[in-house]
Known about the structure:
- The chain has a 3-stranded antiparallel beta sheet.
- It is built from 5 helices and 3 strands.
- The chain is mainly alpha-helical.
- It has one domain: CATH 3.90.1030.10.
Amino acid sequence: MRKKVFGRKLSRERSSREALFVTLAENLVVHKxxxxxxxxxxxxxxxxxxxxxxxxxxxLVSKRNVLSKLRGNKKVATILWRDIAxxxxxxxxxxxxxxxxxxxxxxxxxxxxxEFVKQIVxxxxxxxxxxxxxxxxxxxxxx
Length: 143
């Protein structure tokens, strides 16, 4: 009987399962989308939601909590604070979506693409776009 057992084991011990979730979360934050199995994606949703909610608070304590959950990865944490938290100011939860893909050929595992609901553009990408717009001549016509 299952009783009140929380979470998914994914055929792993606790330490390797936690490492898997942190690695998936880091890749999702950096690349804005990942392709993984359906079970892993569904198990990752609560962690991503907690990270984004903590990032939105912006306090010192919440930033330290985000860093501790991400095993001290400052690069990923700053992306969360700077880019992702600003995009989801108006949202309380439901920051990710799962798009079903064809099953994996080797073992017929259900594959999905997990991505953020909104398209997230980083500060660096915004600067590059503005720089490219400045380089264009003002009197050019597009046909």
